[in-house]
Task: inverse folding
């Protein structure tokens, strides 16, 4: 592994030989948001089977609207805390943030992953389309609101109205949930280990099926979380559960 | 189209009799929006199509119609998913082929159908804070609407092929006072666009004050406000009164000039010009353009004979059909647009001398000249 530290952070070094992993060092304190995005865009693409370049970003101190609309096969290590709407509308990037993040983290993300070591604010993963958002602390209200796909994992607690308006994807809650869990939720499965202050009208607890145990177990392993999938309960829209139970032979169920 | 002005009791005043010559106002053939950083965005006309029902048309037809309407100078609101299936491109959004095309990006609270690329090809981002209704009147998105946006297969429809509830406020914003951070985010996602916030009319004055006075940084302020006056069943007098009132509210609440765009419902070109005289910077002409959608979705025999008909309604795929559509749209819209522009040229630059009314109640309510 090489450790390249370019003199001019705006001009990343050329790609290394195939078996080496390129590392880049950038600073939010030195570069504007646009310069940072430009620097990342200049990192040469690697073959699909090669290890992705590692990009280390320092100087994160609560900046809002940072590192958005990235579409690059890189691993991004961000040291510190970020403000609202960090990592919005990203694709492919594998992100690890060492601190906490404000509201709307990962809004509209299409693919890739975001791992937040500490806490997230309101609307984490709002309107996300794909990929995985993992929060290793707690998340605020309306986590996973209007999500359209992908998966959200919160190791700790989540706030009120988690999953509100979500129409696709999966939410895993390692702790407790606030009021009205799953309000106006469609096509979404929530797994919860703790208790919910209340379930929204139209959602219910459902048996955890074998396939979900497997799916959840894999997710827990990937997220390096201790625990057994059987400790979780499954929360789904009632209409979805009814369609699931009546599905045999039914091709296109109308849940309402 | 309507034949008579709803705002007929309002008169656009001509020059005084003893004024030998009043120079015509320059035609509003371009409309400038000043952004927070004093940069300018030029639109062809102060007319826009706020909420086109694209899902009622075949996707190819929606795309072609958007381009044709924009060619007539009307700013058109659309997501790329409204106009192009996944993996294909929209002719309307291809700016090279339609240099006059201007698009508003509707940024709804739920963001269903929104793609990251949507931020690239628009001049205005419309941050929607007014919850919409479907045909039934409920605050929901219809099956056909949600299927168009999310492009799921028929075998796995969203919500099992039913409606999906609509939200009223972005779920990742804590409060109206905190909306400034969302506005800054949108500025960064689309650096060359103007950011507008669209509101319902019911508590608009109070909400505009909260929105504009709650932000500390000018960058956190929107560049304009759109008010959906069509959501309330206003009488014509109330429509006029609200337009004038909102103009004053915005001017008093913000030190810099912000745009006021209104969505008035069914109007004539004369009504549109009078709304401009009352203080609106741009006027939605959904009523004019929705008639085009209606005709293409449920064509008369003559229209079907011209364009050809399929089970999906009129489907515009060939270049010849596009040209035919362009001609039809221009023939339909041009008289109204021309009349609107002509009336706008006659508006007195001095607000005190723009409008009058022979109706004492109108004159007193709007505080304009009582005529006769």
Result:
């Amino acid at each position: 592994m090489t450790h390249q530290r370019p003199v001019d952070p705006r001009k990343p070094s050329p790609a290394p030989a195939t078996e080496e992993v390129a590392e880049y060092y950038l600073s939010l304190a030195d570069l504007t948001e646009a310069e940072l995005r430009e620097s990342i865009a200049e990192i040469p693409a690697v073959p699909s089977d090669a290890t992705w370049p590692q990009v280390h970003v320092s100087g994160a101190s609560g900046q809002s609207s940072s590192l958005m609309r990235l579409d690059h096969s890189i691993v991004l290590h961000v040291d510190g805390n970020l403000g609202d709407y960090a990592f919005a509308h990203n694709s492919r990037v594998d992100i690890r943030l060492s601190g906490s993040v404000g509201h709307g983290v990962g809004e509209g993300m299409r693919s890739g992953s975001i791992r937040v070591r500490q806490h997230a604010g309101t609307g984490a993963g709002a309107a996300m389309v794909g990929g995985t958002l993992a929060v290793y602390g707690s998340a605020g209200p309306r986590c996973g609101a209007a999500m359209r796909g992908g998966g959200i994992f919160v190791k700790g607690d989540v706030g009120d109205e988690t999953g509100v308006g979500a129409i696709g994807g999966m939410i895993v809650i390692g702790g407790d949930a606030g009021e009205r869990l799953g309000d106006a939720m469609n096509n979404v499965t929530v797994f919860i280990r703790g208790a919910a202050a209340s379930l929204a009208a139209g959602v219910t607890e459902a048996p955890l099926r074998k396939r979900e145990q497997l799916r959840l177990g894999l997710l827990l392993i990937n997220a390096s979380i201790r625990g057994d999938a059987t400790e979780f309960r499954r929360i789904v829209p009632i209409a979805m559960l009814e369609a699931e139970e009546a599905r045999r032979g039914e091709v296109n169920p109308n849940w309402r | 189209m309507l034949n008579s002005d709803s705002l007929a009791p309002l008169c656009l005043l001509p020059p005084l009799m003893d004024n030998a010559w009043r120079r015509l106002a320059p035609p509003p053939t371009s409309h400038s929006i000043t952004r927070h950083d004093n940069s300018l965005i030029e639109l062809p006309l102060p007319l826009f199509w706020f909420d086109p029902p694209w899902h009622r048309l075949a996707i190819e037809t929606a795309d072609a119609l958007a381009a044709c309407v924009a060619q007539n100078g009307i700013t058109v609101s659309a997501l790329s998913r409204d106009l192009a299936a996944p993996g294909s491109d929209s002719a309307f959004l291809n700016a090279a082929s339609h240099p006059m095309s201007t698009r508003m990006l509707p940024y709804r609270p739920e963001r269903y159908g929104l793609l990251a690329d949507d931020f690239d090809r628009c001049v205005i981002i419309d941050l929607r804070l007014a919850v919409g209704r479907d045909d039934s009147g409920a605050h929901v998105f219809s099956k056909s609407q949600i299927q168009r946006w999310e492009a799921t297969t028929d075998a796995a429809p969203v919500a099992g092929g039913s409606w999906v509830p609509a939200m009223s406020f972005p779920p990742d914003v804590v409060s109206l006072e905190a909306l400034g951070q969302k506005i800054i985010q949108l500025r960064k996602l689309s650096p060359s666009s103007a950011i507008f916030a669209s509101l319902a009319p019911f508590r608009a004055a109070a909400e505009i004050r909260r929105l504009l006075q709650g932000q500390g940084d000018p960058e956190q302020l929107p560049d304009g406000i759109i008010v959906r006056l069509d959501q309330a069943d206003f009488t014509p007098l109330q429509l006029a009164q609200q337009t004038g009132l909102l103009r004053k509210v915005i001017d008093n609440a913000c030190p810099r000039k912000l745009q006021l765009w209104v969505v008035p419902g069914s109007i004539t070109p004369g009504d549109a010009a009078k709304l401009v005289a009352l203080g609106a910077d741009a006027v939605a002409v959904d009523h004019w353009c929705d008639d085009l959608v209606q005709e293409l979705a449920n064509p008369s025999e003559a229209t079907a004979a011209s364009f050809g008909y399929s089970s999906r309604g009129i489907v515009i795929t060939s270049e010849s059909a596009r040209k035919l559509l362009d001609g039809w749209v221009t023939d339909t819209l041009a008289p109204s647009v021309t009349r609107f522009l002509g009336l706008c040229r006659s508006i007195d630059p001095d607000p005190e001398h723009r409008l009058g009314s022979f109706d004492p109640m109108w004159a007193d309510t709007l505080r304009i000249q009582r005529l006769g």
Notes: The radius of gyration of chain B is 21 Å. Residues 27 and 345 of chain B are 5 Å apart (CA to CA). Chain B has a mean pLDDT of 89. Chain B touches chain A at residues 109-112, 114, 116, 119, 146, 150, 154-155, 157-165, 167, 170-174, 178, 181-182, 184-185, 188-189, 191 (CB under 8 Å).
